[in-house]
Amino acid sequence: MTKVLDIINFTETFAPLNTQCEWDNSGLLVGNKDTEVKKVLLCLDITHAVVEEAKNLGCELIISHHPVIFSPLSHIDTHDVCYHLIRENIAALCLHTNLDIAQNSGVNVELAKALSLQKPTLYPEEFLCVGELTHEMNSDEFANFVKEALNCRGVRYTKKDKIKKVAVSSGGGGEAVFLKNKYDFDALVTGEIKHHLFLFASENELCAVEAGHFNTEDVVIAELVKKLAEKFPQLSFTKSVSLTDVVNFA
């Protein structure tokens, strides 16, 4: 019999909870460690649709990247996702910043793999992974390469003639533009970039590519499914199909 605790103990071997940021809220956020598990659904975010999907599949546990509880709760409304989880008796294990910086199957490592970066080096304290393209590109070529590799509907980017060394920082990693000189990269791929960060990138000859929060982090979910299935072949692990990128482009 496999329990939620057994899965937690395994995730501790590659994304230990004590490595999460102090402001984070990773861990088992809904449910009991002693719950028996036979089926698990994995996703980036836990939404009502995801809970329904887990229910229909007969899952006892959902593993997500983003915490389903982030700020302290003063009450739980019947419309809240947490209420939905409790009502359906489905546990929720969330692996957030501890998974971002994991050396083995972490979000930034998987993002670097998705972009086929060579000789990737992870800098966990910076939430950054740096590697090299297989061949030099200009910013237009690179932006289209990122769009295709991450299955983006669109990307925003700044111009640069020659790109070889690339840094990735998943999700809201736009401030990594300030690490350009420290790690000497030509391009940064991240999920969200504010206006002043785009300006900084442009003025400092950096190709900054905003590929979307979902697209830069969802790359880790399939790898987690594979990793957990190899460890627990007696269980069923499924990547959510109900959760997709909600951002559209006109």
Would you spell out the secondary-structure blueprint of this structure?
Elements: H1 4-11, E1 27-30, E2 39-43, H2 48-57, E3 61-64, H3 81-87, E4 91-94, H4 97-100, H5 107-114, E5 118-123, E6 128-137, H6 139-149, E7 156-157, E8 163-169, H7 180-183, E9 187-190, H8 195-203, E10 207-210, H9 213-217, H10 219-231, E11 236-239
Parallel strand pairs: 2-3, 2-11, 3-4, 8-9, 9-10
Antiparallel strand pairs: 1-4, 5-6, 6-8, 7-10
- Give the strand content: 15-25%
Gap from first CA to last CA: 50 Å
Number of domains: 2
Annotated CATH homologous superfamily of the largest domain:
NIF3 (NGG1p interacting factor 3)-like
Question: How does this model look, in words?
Answer:
This protein is α/β, with parallel strands linked by helices. The chain folds into two domains: 4-99, Udp-n-acetylmuramoylalanyl-d-glutamate--2,6- Diaminopimelate Ligase, Chain: A, domain 1 (3-Layer(aba) Sandwich), CATH 3.40.1390; 107-216, Udp-n-acetylmuramoylalanyl-d-glutamate--2,6- Diaminopimelate Ligase, Chain: A, domain 1, CATH 3.40.1390. The protein has ten helices and eleven strands. It is elongated. The relative contact order is 0.16.
